[in-house]
Amino acid sequence: MDLSHTLCLLLCAAALTVSGVLGKDENNMEYVWTKQSLPVLLDAHTQLLNTPMFRDQEEDEEGPGSKRFCGIECQSTLPPMDRSEQERILGYETMYENGTRTHTDITLQGLNKSAGVAANAPKNTRRKRQVYGADGRFVISDSQFSTNYPFSSAVRLSTGCSGVLVSPKHVLTAAHCIHDGKDYLEGSRKLKVGVLQIKTKRRGGGRKRGGRGRGGRRGQLEEKEMSERGGDGDKKKKANRIRRSAEPRKQPVFRWARVKQTRIPQGWILPQSSAKSVSPDYNYALLELKRPLMQRYMELGVAPSSTPLARIHFSGYDADKSLLDGRGDGKVVYRFCSVSKESNDLMYQHCDAQAGATGAGVYIRLRQQDGDAGKKGKWQRRVIGVFTGHQWMEDGDQTDFNVAVRITPTKYAQICHWIHGDPSLCKEI
Ligand SMILES: *[C@@H]1O[C@H](CO)[C@@H](O)[C@H](O)[C@H]1NC(C)=O
Ligand SMILES: *[C@@H]1O[C@H](CO)[C@@H](O)[C@H](O)[C@H]1NC(C)=O
Question: Which residue has better confidence, 198 or 383?
């Protein structure tokens, strides 16, 4: 996309924010968030595991395509999962800040076939590959937009991925941003989540801000700018910082919040000998922050399975040096696109995205169900999946796809359990 059109894009973004993205489909059909009951997920047994090794990601670089996943078509040849396998896969690992790791077995109650767990056949919604005129990425340059909903619910991880705020203190992201299927990645040990905020007046070198009466403590957030954080290339960041501070306009900066614990489904953790596994379906993780963020979050949802997904949206922090003079990673990038192929668990799409957008929350807009007859509900965005990036899939002739994991009722029940820990709050959606 031509970057000289940033202003136009900004205006477009403004229009989107005001009127919403009213695609044809969204306009003409009565797309509504439907209520459905959920299976109940209960913890059965938790055991302590050994401390992870925190491998360096580099060890795994065996070239593209070295690790292939079983994709939509490949999975349709697998036998349906029985209940005990589902329970195994929905078990989960928790890793705490101090490196302690536990595994929890779960049991599922009230599991219906219609809940869409067992059947994972590709739906007959294959569309022609199309390039839409408006397809592409929108760099949200204006801080007024980038620091407000919905773009502000997109967060950045210190490992370089993106994520989405789904509660005041929970971030949904891709599992492979913290765990490669075998072990936790080096960067997951001291994980932090960055939100873009307008910099207010600096105090005492900008390291601390008054923490709402929490005087003595270390402030509500880890309030350090991106530029002050170590990582890949301190010098470069310092240079950015100098450039940034020379700018007259107020630029939003990242405020970093510490992660207290991470959770990944057992389905993502590869058994030793699994040529054909469903692990791409479970490429999601939930991060719990130490303290809640004062930021509007986006609710989780389950996309109705009765109608094909027309259009999905997501915002993230693409690590794309071509964007904005190499400073793309400090800007939230928004895009929408159509889904080309979907199953209950996966979506293939043609959204433009670079690596840093991995983990971004994929959302759709539907109308809320309304009690009053005759009245249309309000449009509401909900996160219905996680963008998991460009992946190599074992799937007929084509092998590489842009993939997103879809939240099914059972996955919703699991994530809801992680957020609330109270089954009574996760009975229906
Ligand atoms: C399962 O089906 C029964 C009857 O059809 C229904 O009452 C129940 O709410 C369903 N449970 C779930 C989790 O969908
Ligand atoms: C690590 O943290 C967890 C959760 O706070 C706690 O249960 C566990 O005892 C801690 N382990 C060590 C070795 O400190």
Answer: 383
